[in-house]
Specification:
protease; endopeptidase fold (from Nostoc punctiforme); thiol protease; 5-stranded antiparallel beta sheet; 6-stranded antiparallel beta sheet; Peptidase_C40; mainly beta; 242 residues; single chain; NLP_P60_dom; 2 domains
Length: 242
């Protein structure tokens, strides 16, 4: 039986919809989803699998989300093309995390974020298992990005801006108009390429400086160059922060 009462479609967020996917919001759905996903630990990996007989990575995500009446595309790259982009430091349980395990800069693996840097996924050798984004070097290096399909309820004090809940120390929101590079500052204070951001994605901005012709800080030493032909910057109104 469909659990429609558990999901509220948030058309008022005015965020783009991809592949017919609608964003949903519910107070407890993320916790329930995480608990359910853990019951599937140990099910073997099967290429193309999308049932409890065996899963591949994207099949596992779609199977779990379907149980909570949230539709996902079937393929990892399509899953990454949809949803709302999420900074790594802003991840909440239930978000989808994506990896480039084959090189070439393309998404090739995916999982569901559990919190505390952990994610659950269909490992090609051990089946459904929990791994760590930070303590396991392989996954830390292969991390590509994250997307949110279930909007977290905003607190009354924080509010919403540009379709995203407002976070502490946030100063604005970047909206990507044309593909643009995301950069990361290394230990020598040099910028190194991180990944490409896609049109329609939105990111919270926490700082701005005039380095390198001007750049917006997304937190975690991540920066977008101030290129007005590629991005729209929306400054957070003072009233929204009170």
């Amino acid at each position: 039986m469909k659990r429609i009462a558990k999901v509220v479609i948030t058309a008022a967020l005015l965020l783009p919809t991809f592949f017919g996917v609608e964003k949903a919001s519910a107070a407890n759905i993320n916790e329930e989803m995480i608990d359910y996903s853990k019951t599937l630990i140990g099910i073997p990996y099967v290429y193309g699998g999308n049932s409890t007989s065996g899963f591949d990575c994207s099949g596992f995500l779609k199977f779990v989300y379907d149980k909570f009446d949230v539709s996902l595309p079937r393929i990892s790259s399509d899953q990454y093309a949809g949803g709302t982009a999420v900074n790594k430091e802003d991840l909440i349980p239930g978000d989808l995390v994506f990896f480039n395990t084959t090189g070439g800069g393309k998404v090739s693996h995916s999982g569901i974020y559990l919190g505390d840097n952990q994610f659950i996924h269909a490992d090609s050798t051990k089946g459904i298992k929990i791994s760590n984004l930070e303590t396991e070097r392989y996954w830390k290096n292969a991390y590509h990005g994250a997307k949110r399909y279930i909007e977290a309820p905003a607190t009354e004090a924080a509010g919403m801006f540009q379709g995203l809940d407002i976070r502490e120390n946030q100063v604005g929101v970047i909206e990507v108009k044309k593909s643009i590079n995301l950069w990361k500052r290394d230990s020598d204070n040099k910028l190194t390429f991180e990944r490409v951001l896609n049109p329609g994605e939105k990111y919270r901005v926490y700082a701005y400086d005039s380095n390198h012709g001007g750049q917006y800080g997304l937190g975690g030493d991540l920066y977008i160059t101030d290129m007005k032909s590629h991005i729209n910057y929306h400054s957070l109104p003072q009233v929204a922060k009170n």
